[in-house]
Amino acid sequence: MPQKDYLPSPGSDELRLLVPTRIHRAIYEVLHDRRGDPPTMQETQAAVRAELGNEAADQVHFSKRLRELRDHFVIETERDGSDYRYRLIGMRDLTKPDAAVSKRLRAQVLRHQRCDMCGRSPAQDGVRLHVDHKLPREWGGPTEEWNLQPLCSDCNEGKKAYYASFDSVAPQIMAAVGHDSVHVRIGELLKAFAAEGMTTPDEVLEFVAEARGRQRYWEKRMRELRHLGWEFEPRMRDEDGVRKTEWELKQWKPWPTEGPAAAIRRLTKGEKPVRPQALPSLAQRNG
Q1: Which residues of 218-234 are buried (b: 16+ CB within 10 A; e: fewer)?
Q2: Which CATH architecture has domain 167-286?
């Protein structure tokens, strides 16, 4: 839990011990000074560039530095129109490892004593197992059994590096997670990756679809978007000899005013849903 009554002062020895580099400390100083008026990513980056010049990171690496600050501090993301603002709340309680995971839940997750990714075990391979959030906590992943898995140290670090490659869309992923409707979570995630010229990995779709609870049929919910005029195609990739699927969004439509689930039910019955005028496809808009 955040310690809301205290934050280290910018420039203090305590902050230098907590935060390793000048760019981390510069970002922290902007967030600290603007707690009453949270800055956007662009405003924060501009302020850091004014202070550090060429030392400041590009957009993707800047997002990573901001995410790394969340190891020590609670930083909330707030939507403001098409922008996102970052509010510094307080310090994390780092006195206990995996403090959010109860002993009972930890025992449930680790009961098979094998890494879910590589299959190694402490008894046979001498690895250390960690309780990992499949959908990262920074993206709104809950501390519930369905969202937790045992990972060895190597796989845990590899997963962190893999998810770091999505730093450019991290705020949009967090925004997608915030929707109650599984259809909307999936659709907004597809839109977020498409806006960056990226395809959406299957595993990220699954995690975001399940952000509010296990969805045994999330692939069916995704296919149902086609009833609303959405178009997307699979793209295959090889990763260490394993074929994985990513999705390319071709066209999307505004969400029906009655909600996607109700609109899909109407359409499957041959009725017309109540929805606003369709937007052009991505190809039309980019052409």
Answers
A1: beebbebbebbebebee
A2: Orthogonal Bundle (1.10)
Check pLDDT > 70 for residue 90.
yes
pLDDT tens digit sequence for 177-192: 878 899 999 999 999 9
Amino acid identity of 17? L
What mean pLDDT is reported for the chain? 82
Name beta bridge partners: 2: none
pLDDT single digits (tens) 121-176: 999 999 999 999 887 876 767 788 888 899 999 998 888 888 877 877 877 887 88
One fold for 13-91 and 167-286: yes
What is the helix, strand, coil percentage profile of the chain, to 5?
45, 15, 35
Q: Which of 231, 237, 243, 137 is nearest to 187 (CA)?
A: 231
Which residues, 6 or more positions from 273, have their beta carbon under 8 angstroms from its beta carbon?
Answer: 228, 256, 258, 262, 263, 264, 266, 267
Residue 279 above 70 pLDDT? Answer: no
For the chain, what are the domain ranges?
Answer: 13-91, 103-153, 167-286
Task: Extract the runs of DSSP E, i.e. beta strands, from 134-177.
Answer: 148-152
What values do phi and psi take at 244, rounded to 5? -125, 155
Percent of the chain with pLDDT over 70: 84
Q: What amino acid occupies position 18?
A: L
CA 24, CA 16: separation in Å to the nearest integer?
Answer: 10
Neighbours of 254 (CB within 10 A): 12
Angle, vertex CA 174, rays to CA 253 and CA 152, nearest 5: 125
Q: Which CATH class is domain 13-91?
A: mainly alpha
The C-alpha angle with vertex 278 and arms to 272 and 282, in degrees rounded to 5, equals 135
Show the tokens assigned to 58: 């590009």
Are 112 and 22 a contacting pair, CB within 8 Å? no
